[in-house]
């Protein structure tokens, strides 16, 4: 309980000004294949590609701002961790997180919260740029330069986007129930 109380106060204190909302239709269109884009080292420094990350039926690719400093992302990643095994074993979808964070920052977060799914380090924001989800509110030199607008892309086994989930404001994230419903709607 103390953990959630501390996170709540962190949310109230540590936030960026909410200036730029996400576009209405964020990222590539449904039907676009993103398998070739999803290629980066994970939190352990291991090079990863979509083919070794995807589950039996597909992947839930979560683009988030930062596991180091974004409390909304941290809560989302922790919540996803609670459901990762169910999503993989019962639904056939593996969760994969993607951020501009360094491998070390992702490793620290993973260890602290015992995250059981891969977090990819997109340093330089190559994937984020190619997905068209770069938050251009921040300029080079700003610590948040390179962050994406948060997006969840649900793909099939081949990497075709079958559904996208996002909220207009970065402080809001699709709830786990919405992810489950989107997956159920695909089957």
TrEMBL record:
<keyword id="KW-1015">Disulfide bond</keyword>
<protein>
    <recommendedName>
        <fullName>thioredoxin-dependent peroxiredoxin</fullName>
        <ecNumber>1.11.1.24</ecNumber>
    </recommendedName>
</protein>
<keyword id="KW-0575">Peroxidase</keyword>
<keyword id="KW-0732">Signal</keyword>
<dbReference type="GO" id="GO:0005737">
    <property type="term" value="C:cytoplasm"/>
</dbReference>
<dbReference type="InterPro" id="IPR036249">
    <property type="entry name" value="Thioredoxin-like_sf"/>
</dbReference>
<keyword id="KW-0560">Oxidoreductase</keyword>
<dbReference type="InterPro" id="IPR013766">
    <property type="entry name" value="Thioredoxin_domain"/>
</dbReference>
<dbReference type="Pfam" id="PF00578">
    <property type="entry name" value="AhpC-TSA"/>
</dbReference>
<dbReference type="InterPro" id="IPR000866">
    <property type="entry name" value="AhpC/TSA"/>
</dbReference>
<comment type="similarity">
    <text>Belongs to the peroxiredoxin family. BCP/PrxQ subfamily.</text>
</comment>
<feature type="domain" description="Thioredoxin">
    <location>
        <begin position="28"/>
        <end position="185"/>
    </location>
</feature>
<dbReference type="GO" id="GO:0045454">
    <property type="term" value="P:cell redox homeostasis"/>
</dbReference>
<dbReference type="InterPro" id="IPR050924">
    <property type="entry name" value="Peroxiredoxin_BCP/PrxQ"/>
</dbReference>
<dbReference type="GO" id="GO:0008379">
    <property type="term" value="F:thioredoxin peroxidase activity"/>
</dbReference>
<comment type="function">
    <text>Thiol-specific peroxidase that catalyzes the reduction of hydrogen peroxide and organic hydroperoxides to water and alcohols, respectively. Plays a role in cell protection against oxidative stress by detoxifying peroxides and as sensor of hydrogen peroxide-mediated signaling events.</text>
</comment>
<feature type="signal peptide">
    <location>
        <begin position="1"/>
        <end position="20"/>
    </location>
</feature>
<keyword id="KW-0049">Antioxidant</keyword>
<keyword id="KW-0676">Redox-active center</keyword>
<dbReference type="GO" id="GO:0034599">
    <property type="term" value="P:cellular response to oxidative stress"/>
</dbReference>
């Amino acid at each position: 309980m103390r953990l959630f109380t501390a996170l709540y106060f962190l949310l109230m204190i540590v936030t960026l000004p909410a200036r730029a909302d996400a576009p209405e239709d964020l990222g590539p269109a449904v039907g676009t294949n993103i398998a070739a884009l999803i290629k980066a080292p994970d939190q352990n420094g291991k090079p990863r590609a979509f083919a070794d990350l995807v589950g039996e039926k597909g992947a839930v690719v979560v683009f988030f701002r930062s596991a180091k400093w974004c409390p909304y992302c941290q809560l989302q990643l922790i919540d996803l961790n609670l459901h990762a095994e169910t999503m993989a074993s019962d639904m056939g979808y593996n969760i994969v997180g993607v951020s501009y964070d360094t491998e070390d920052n992702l490793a620290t977060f993973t260890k602290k919260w015992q995250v059981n799914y891969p977090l990819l380090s997109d340093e330089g924001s190559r994937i984020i740029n190619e997905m068209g989800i770069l938050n251009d509110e921040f300029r080079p030199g700003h610590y948040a330069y390179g962050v994406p607008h948060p997006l969840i892309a649900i793909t099939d086994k081949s990497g075709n986007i079958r559904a996208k989930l996002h909220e207009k404001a970065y402080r809001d994230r699709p709830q786990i129930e919405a992810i489950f419903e989107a997956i159920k709607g695909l089957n």
